[in-house]
Amino acid sequence: MPDRSLADWLTLIESRHPSEIELGLDRVAEVWRRLLQQPRLNQCKPPLAITVAGTNGKGSCIASMQALLLQHGHSLGTFTSPHFLAYNERICLAGKPVEDGLIVDAFEQIEAVTEDISLTYFELGTLAALVIFYQASPEVMLLEVGLGGRLDAINIIDADIAVLTSIALDHCDWLGDTRTAIAREKLGIARPDRPLIIGEQDHPDGFAQQVADTGANPVWAGRDFTFTSGPLFDCQLSAVNGPLKFSQLNGRGLLPLNKTLALQALVAAGFKLNQQDSAAALQQVALTGRHQQLSHKGIEVILDVAHNPAAAQVLAANLAPAQGRTIAVAAVLEDKDWSGIIAPMADLVDDWIIGEISDSSRARKGQSLLELLYNAGQTGRLQPSVEQAFQLAVENAAATDRILVFGSFHTVAAVLKIILAEV
């Protein structure tokens, strides 16, 4: 078999499995079991595993943990999804995307044991990350759940620390159409007698019993650990030797909640964190596509992956007053509550330009988005693609205007590529 490049592998695995999403652990767990029996993995010591689930805030929590661990001198691997520009962004060692060769080698190891089992794109990527982490042997691996929790491929790993950031309606076709049902799926990452860090404070019906049923040791935001808000925030964490306080931490960019969750998870895992290094780490931590502010041709551009009503509410609350107009460039996937996303943004947007995501079969049709916009009392224009929508926004923007790009990772990625190509 000729050597395949990473691009070749990605093209191959995208075409193999009939479904982009297929929840369930049986297939991926069996391949992982076979991998662990191979000589290159069977003597590896598993890194400590911190798994993060939640409707929103997963990436921010993991980025904060990564920054904190690096600042304190610890080794780590990080698995997140999706990526913006390069697949390698999903698998990082020491905060840096791994080289193509490591991913190709991992895919080859997986291929050697898969036999007749069909795996999705995400499942193969998850296994590749685990192979790389086990062989690199960092102290800790940070694992972001792709969808839900209980039946997500990440859940083949027994989390030493489980983190649940938030619970909101999203991916309802797969997870259920109530917050109670969604909470049940996300709590599936918890393990008996191990810490479960809970960031959600607006608990759905029956949530306390759901948490108790996991058998985990819950650590509750608002009860066991607390935090303030604002550009500088303080927090008090639950620790073995009594409350642990941090003060005057950077509250801009990523939400104080998600930064506090990161601190609490690492403390629960036994890491010793100090005020000076923690403040330095959280001062510099940032995440692509999360209220990311850039400039393009002299125009301010804000990129945000907000793709459900809860995330849109956070985006709206954190938008600074505009000098000029706010021009929105937006596109979403088919399963998203577009009307619910529009609602918190309606009073903040002066001009809507709707595009259509071109690199996903799950993209929602632009005409449908435009119709729901009109139903919400808004007006807008439709362009064939996100790229064309952004170009029209740039052409129509004055120097004091800003362009707000949101609705999906795909939407943000399309615009980010345009901006970076001209830097």
Care to give the gist of this entry?
The protein is an alpha/beta fold and 423 residues long. The chain has helices at residues 6-16, 26-36, 58-71, 100-114, 121-136, 172-175, 179-186, 207-214, 256-268, 275-284, 309-318, 338-345, 366-375, 386-396, 409-421, and strands at 48-53, 76-79, 91-93, 96-97, 140-144, 161-164, 195-198, 217-220, 226-227, 232-237, 244-250, 292-296, 299-304, 326-330, 351-354, 380-382, 402-406.
Structure, described:
This protein has helices at 6-16, 26-36, 58-71, 100-114, 121-136, 172-175, 179-186, 207-214, 256-268, 275-284, 309-318, 338-345, 366-375, 386-396, 409-421; strands spanning 48-53, 76-79, 91-93, 96-97, 140-144, 161-164, 195-198, 217-220, 226-227, 232-237, 244-250, 292-296, 299-304, 326-330, 351-354, 380-382, 402-406. By secondary structure, it is an alpha/beta fold. The chain has two domains: 6-284, Mur-like, catalytic domain (UDP-N-acetylmuramoyl-L-alanine:D-glutamate ligase), CATH 3.40.1190; 292-421, Mur ligase, C-terminal domain (Protein-Tyrosine Phosphatase, Chain A), CATH 3.90.190.20. An eight-stranded mixed beta sheet has the order 4-3-2-5-1-6-7-8, with helices on both faces. A six-stranded mixed beta sheet has the order 12-13-17-14-15-16, sandwiched between helices. Strands 9-10-11 form a three-stranded antiparallel beta sheet. The longest helix is centred in the first third of the chain and has 16 residues, at 121-136. The protein is globular and about 60 Å long.
